[in-house]
Automatic annotation (TrEMBL), chain A:
<dbReference type="InterPro" id="IPR005475">
    <property type="entry name" value="Transketolase-like_Pyr-bd"/>
</dbReference>
<keyword id="KW-0809">Transit peptide</keyword>
<dbReference type="InterPro" id="IPR029061">
    <property type="entry name" value="THDP-binding"/>
</dbReference>
<keyword id="KW-0786">Thiamine pyrophosphate</keyword>
<dbReference type="Pfam" id="PF02780">
    <property type="entry name" value="Transketolase_C"/>
</dbReference>
<protein>
    <recommendedName>
        <fullName>Pyruvate dehydrogenase E1 component subunit beta</fullName>
        <ecNumber>1.2.4.1</ecNumber>
    </recommendedName>
</protein>
<feature type="domain" description="Transketolase-like pyrimidine-binding">
    <location>
        <begin position="20"/>
        <end position="195"/>
    </location>
</feature>
<dbReference type="GO" id="GO:0006086">
    <property type="term" value="P:pyruvate decarboxylation to acetyl-CoA"/>
</dbReference>
<dbReference type="InterPro" id="IPR033248">
    <property type="entry name" value="Transketolase_C"/>
</dbReference>
Automatic annotation (TrEMBL), chain B:
<dbReference type="GO" id="GO:0006006">
    <property type="term" value="P:glucose metabolic process"/>
</dbReference>
<keyword id="KW-0597">Phosphoprotein</keyword>
<dbReference type="InterPro" id="IPR017597">
    <property type="entry name" value="Pyrv_DH_E1_asu_subgrp-y"/>
</dbReference>
<keyword id="KW-0496">Mitochondrion</keyword>
<dbReference type="Pfam" id="PF00676">
    <property type="entry name" value="E1_dh"/>
</dbReference>
<dbReference type="GO" id="GO:0006086">
    <property type="term" value="P:pyruvate decarboxylation to acetyl-CoA"/>
</dbReference>
<dbReference type="GO" id="GO:0046872">
    <property type="term" value="F:metal ion binding"/>
</dbReference>
<dbReference type="InterPro" id="IPR001017">
    <property type="entry name" value="DH_E1"/>
</dbReference>
<keyword id="KW-0670">Pyruvate</keyword>
């Protein structure tokens, strides 16, 4: 028989921070939302009996069964359409694409059937669906499996597009996405799945939600604003840590949402730092950085820029396979540091 | 002195213009009769007419089905009048749309349904309004059978605020309860329909989804993907191919390696139905609905039908088929004529009665057209609304950076 736990130890336990990987955060978010609302269900390739191609849906089929966790054949256009139809008829599907590269096969259903319907029907027909899966570059998977779709989906009215970075982002944004009554494209990152983050008790609560459309300042700074999303946020923070030793303080903004873009957060930061560098994994032309720069040009923050804003992006080529080539196809910390110094003219 | 009048009054004794039938419970004074008083009884309410009749319908070709629909259909007078009225309304509505399009009051795409009325009306007669339905872009007829009014359909075609989608959808994007449009992308509606069926099964309300597509769409890959999943998961889905023999300007022989569309579901049982006969369509739909509701999974119907108009208003429809062919279908297989002939030759209605319906329909269409041409266009501040559902108001960029427009749910 153990002695009852004294109160002061209880208090210490209750403020214990958990280390949670992005994968587990996503898993827990889905588990909680499946439990909370019977209309929520998950469908996609290998999501049920295989526990998920990247194990994001591990344990869910065992807990919820065939009705709520559905393995589909390898027919993206078909099952994405089925998911959208189910959403139209009152359910709340989570449609997983094994990677967003495969969503191209189904993109008509995402855009023409999901995104546009509420508008075309003048409010008669809503589509409460989440499309989720890993997006962007991975490691050694070559050209057809490495594309970033943030810009493509971010282009379209009627969609919300979300790109979490940390475990907290993944949890809060996925819950918000599932509870949102509109089509949400949820861009995860395979290389981030296994990365652990500290998660406070507040974040662990079942109703912890992160509002879609609001960016977060991950690191305060005064000399330059870095804007990024997904895995590149890690690189920005690493670059900021290196530069801090040289006396350059970078403000790192984690976009969290691609569409609607939180331009105000970026503008407010630029008005303080007077310099902007955007960092993304995707291709440069017509990309995320291109949109941010255009908005800054058109908005009040332009007058606060002391030098032209620039973009750090993936190289404008299909992704090669060989490691040395792949490593040089995406932004590295040194590329970010280089661009910051050029912008600051140091 | 009152007399209980017996069942029939003989014409030779009391000449009158109407042959009337008096039920035995009606009591008249003898004086009235002797004075030749004419008793007018509504020709509609009493069985001067045959209350119902049985008609032979064409046998359906079957695929992986042991039994087809019955070879005879019972039609009640009431049903007949209702089908007639609905088909006639549909016909006249489409013809009015043709007129308005030529006057440039309707713009863009306009795909007319005249000739195919028996399909929409027969299908609806075989299901309930609580069931679900989705189709492609030739959708005006279904919008009507699924509860839309002629007024709001026409006003949507003319792009006015009184339109069923407030003028924001147009011809191809009309919606009502349990009717998911109106879909512009060929074939995309088929997986959507199976998704609706999945929701029906999931929610356990014994509802089903009718999922329509044309002979052109029938070759789409996503339809075969849908057949597979619907069958695997036993979704309560009636797939219906409206085969009107032409996918835009391409005849079925030039588009499909197999034109047996009712067999294309392979492992899905199918039947080929005379789509010009509303009773045939109804009976087949009833069979299909029973199949779905009993948990057997999806079923496929091919309706052999015909469109009088071209593919759309920009297609005259005579470059890939002859006027003779169109005329032949009109004279031999018109769905409205077929029903009319059946009812008249079986004394289920009078010529005058049907004419009266025609007059009423014409008036309804005229009134609707009047509304559709005079109702104002949507207000400009509706431009950016309906982007998101259940969201707080947001700002939308206009055509230039200084223009910020408002959007509400």
């Amino acid at each position: 028989m153990t002695a009852p736990v004294p109160c002061d130890i209880c208090i210490i336990n209750s403020i214990l921070l958990l280390q949670v990987t992005v994968r587990d955060a996503l898993n827990q978010a889905m588990d909680e939302e499946l439990e909370r609302d019977e209309r929520v269900f998950l469908l996609g390739e290998e999501v049920a009996q295989y526990d998920g191609a990247y194990k994001v849906s591990r344990g869910l089929w065992k807990k919820y069964g065939d009705k709520r966790i559905i393995d589909t054949p390898i027919t993206e256009m078909g099952f994405a359409g089925i998911a959208v139809g189910a959403a139209m008829a009152g359910l709340r599907p989570i449609c997983e694409f094994m990677t967003f590269n495969f969503s191209m096969q189904a993109i008509d259903q995402v855009i023409n059937s999901a995104a546009k319907t509420y508008y075309m029907s003048a409010g008669l027909q809503s589509v409460p669906i989440v499309f989720r899966g890993p997006n962007g570059a991975s490691a050694g998977v070559a050209a057809q499996h490495s594309q970033c779709f943030a810009a493509w989906y971010g282009h379209c009215p009627g969609l919300k597009v979300v790109s979490p970075w940390s475990a907290e982002d993944a949890r809060g944004l996925l819950k918000s996405a599932i509870r949102d009554d509109n089509p949400v494209v949820f861009l995860e990152n395979e290389l981030m799945y296994g990365v652990p983050f500290e998660m406070s008790e507040e974040v662990q609560s079942k109703d912890f939600l992160i509002p879609i459309g609001k960016a977060k300042i991950e690191r305060q700074g005064t000399h330059i604003t870095l804007v990024s999303h997904s895995r590149m946020v890690s690189l920005c923070l690493d670059a900021a840590a290196v530069l801090a030793k040289e006396g350059i303080e970078c403000e790192v903004i984690n976009m969290r949402t691609i569409r609607p873009l939180d331009a105000e957060a970026i503008e407010t930061s630029i008005m303080k730092t007077n310099h902007l560098v955007t960092v993304e994994g995707g291709w440069p032309q017509f990309g995320i950085g291109a949109e941010i720069l255009a908005r800054i040009m058109e908005g009040p923050a332009f007058n606060y820029l002391d030098s032209p804003a620039v973009r750090v992006t993936g190289v404008d080529i299909p992704m090669p396979y060989a490691k040395i080539l792949e490593d040089n196809s995406v932004p590295q910390i040194k590329d970010i540091i280089f661009s910051i110094k050029k912008t600051l003219n140091v | 002195m009152c007399v209980c009048v017996c069942v029939c009054v003989c014409l030779s004794v009391f000449p009158c213009d109407y042959f009337f039938f008096l039920p035995s419970s009606l009591i008249f004074s003898v004086e009235d009769f002797l004075n030749g008083a004419r008793v007018v009884v509504s020709a509609r309410t009493y069985a001067d007419f045959t209350p119902q009749a049985t008609f032979d319908i064409k046998k359906c070709d079957l695929h992986k089905l042991d039994e087809g629909p019955p070879l005879q259909a019972v039609l009640s007078r009431e049903e007949g009048l209702q089908y007639y009225r609905t088909m006639q309304t549909m016909r006249r509505m489409e013809l009015k749309a043709d007129q308005l399009y030529k006057q440039k009051i309707i713009r863009g795409f306009c795909h007319l349904y005249d000739g195919q009325e028996a399909c929409a009306v027969g299908i609806e007669a075989g299901i309930n309004l609580s069931d679900h339905l989705i189709t492609a872009y030739r959708a005006h007829g279904y919008t009507l059978t699924r509860g839309g009014t002629v007024r709001e359909i026409m006003a949507e075609l003319t792009g006015r605020r009184g339109g069923i989608a407030k003028g924001k959808g147009g011809s191809m994007h009309m919606y009502t309860k349990h009717f998911y449009g109106g879909n512009g992308i060929v074939g995309a509606q088929v997986p959507l329909g199976a998704g609706v069926a999945l929701a029906c099964k999931y929610l356990g309300k014994n509802e089903l989804c009718v999922c329509l597509y044309g002979d052109g769409a029938a070759n789409q890959g996503q339809i075969f993907e849908t057949y597979n999943m619907a069958s695997l998961w036993k979704l309560p889905c009636i797939f219906i191919c409206e085969n009107n023999k032409y996918g835009m300007g391409t005849s079925v022989e030039r588009a499909a390696a197999s034109t047996d569309y009712y067999k294309r579901g392979d492992f899905i049982p199918g039947l080929r139905v005379d789509g010009m006969d509303v009773l045939c369509v109804r009976e087949a739909t009833k069979l299909a609905a029973e199949h779905c509701r009993s948990g057997k999974g999806p079923i496929l119907m091919e309706l052999q039908t015909y469109r009088y108009h071209g593919h759309s208003m920009s297609d005259p429809g005579v470059s890939y088929r002859t006027r003779d062919e169109i005329q032949e279908v009109r004279s031999k297989s018109d769905p409205i004529s077929m029903l009319k002939d059946r009812m008249l030759s079986n004394n289920m209605a009078s010529v005058e009665e049907l004419k009266e319906i025609d007059v009423e329909v014409r008036k309804e269409i005229e009134d609707a057209a009047q509304f559709a041409t005079t109702d104002p266009e949507p207000p400009l501040d509706d431009l950016c609304n309906h982007i998101f559902y259940n969201d707080p108001p947001m700002e939308v960029r206009g055509t230039n950076p200084w223009t910020k427009l408002k959007s509400v749910s």
